[in-house]
Design brief:
343 residues; alpha/beta; Enolase-like, domain 1; TIM Barrel; 2 domains; 7-stranded parallel β-sheet; 3-stranded antiparallel β-sheet; 10 helices; globular
Length: 343
């Protein structure tokens, strides 16, 4: 196969400012990668690189130059597995996706997945940071629309105010039975985190993602041992070579869950390896999209679907953009359904 390629930069605009405890976004850069066989130019594989500023190791505004350099090597005959992509996780995700699509006929079909044949994926309803009153309205709306699991971003407001907010939601009719997940994005200080988790535990929290900043293995291990709330590692996995240090990290920290974001972890094969390690250590996991466009979300949903997950996944971010690409999914009753694309 004699490959050709293109790379297109797109700036997607959020419907409203997206806030975490770390930063805020009004728009985001995405690079759409297309590859095709020069002898069959009508069959095109599509992938997406969507690194997150201040989080992704490979974020830069001229990322297209890096992507083209890697694609040139593929054209010259270098095997994908031989490319040096360790520090380019979103690029690896994009190239892997595009090649999978191309090999499957260019119909944006990436995996043999029950999701493609009508089995929906349960997802959590994500409530982004904002004013507590507007967050409450959004949480109630999501619960009323069928989400059985609601995830709140925490760490940017006064902690007591956030506790009162969660308590108030728990007192609403659907809030009494809704599963609540929290995501701190590393906002808690290591010497304060356990007391805060003890306070939050009275609200029957399912889990909390990354309560303290990554890189504090000993402190995180102690939290995982002492906290009554299950802890999920998220940012902790970024930049870790799963085949070299992944097992060491999980054995040292002993989390209850890990969060898998293929854009940040270097694609599907790397994420599969994290799942293998988690299963060996009897840890739970779920996957989360990382602000990809509908292109990336589609690929991730198909990958998740091949595992037939039993718990809610974090795949509801496709609705965030006002100028997104055509969607291959729709959300109904807190579940993500596949919509076949006409390509």
């Amino acid at each position: 196969m004699e490959l050709n390629y293109s790379v297109e930069a797109h700036k997607l605009r959020f419907k409203k400012t997206i806030k975490t405890s770390r930063n805020a976004f009004k728009e985001k850069l995405h690079w759409i990668v297309k590859v095709w066989d020069k002898n069959k130019p009508s069959i095109v594989g599509i992938g997406e690189a969507a690194p997150i500023e201040l989080l992704s190791p490979d974020y830069r505004e001229d990322l297209d130059l890096i992507i083209k350099k890697q694609l040139y090597q593929l054209v010259e005959g270098v095997n994908f597995n031989d490319l040096d992509l360790h520090k380019l996780p979103s690029v690896k995700f994009a190239l892997e996706s595009a090649l999978l699509d191309l090999n499957n006929g260019g119909h944006q079909i990436y995996f043999d997945s029950g999701y493609l044949t009508g089995k929906p994926i349960a997802i959590n309803g994500l409530v982004w940071m904002g004013g507590l009153e507007s967050m409450m309205e959004e949480a109630i709306e999501k619960a009323n629309s069928g989400y059985k699991c609601i995830k709140f971003k925490v760490g940017s407001h006064d902690f007591d105010a956030e506790c009162r907010f969660i308590e108030q939601f728990r007192k609403t009719p659907l809030g009494k039975t809704t599963e609540i997940r929290l995501d701190a994005n590393g906002a808690f200080l290591a010497d304060e985190a356990l007391e805060k988790l003890k306070e939050l535990n009275r609200f029957h929290i399912h889990s909390i993602e990354q309560p303290i900043k990554q890189g504090q293995w000993d402190n995180m291990a102690k939290l995982c041992m002492d906290s009554k709330i299950a802890i999920a590692l998220d940012e902790e996995l970024i930049g870790v070579r799963v085949n070299i240090d992944g097992n060491k990290l999980l054995k040292h920290i002993k989390p209850q869950y890990i969060i898998l974001k293929p854009t940040l972890l270097g694609g599907f094969k790397a994420s599969d390896e994290w799942i293998t390690l988690a299963n060996k250590q009897k840890l739970g996991w779920w996957a989360t999209s990382a602000l990809e466009s509908n292109y990336g979300l589609n690929a991730i949903a198909q990958w998740v679907g091949k595992y037939d997950p039993l718990i809610s996944q974090g795949l509801g971010t496709g609705m965030l953009y006002e100028n997104n690409f055509k969607s291959s999914s729709e959300i109904r009753d807190g579940k993500l359904f596949y919509l076949p694309l006409k390509v």
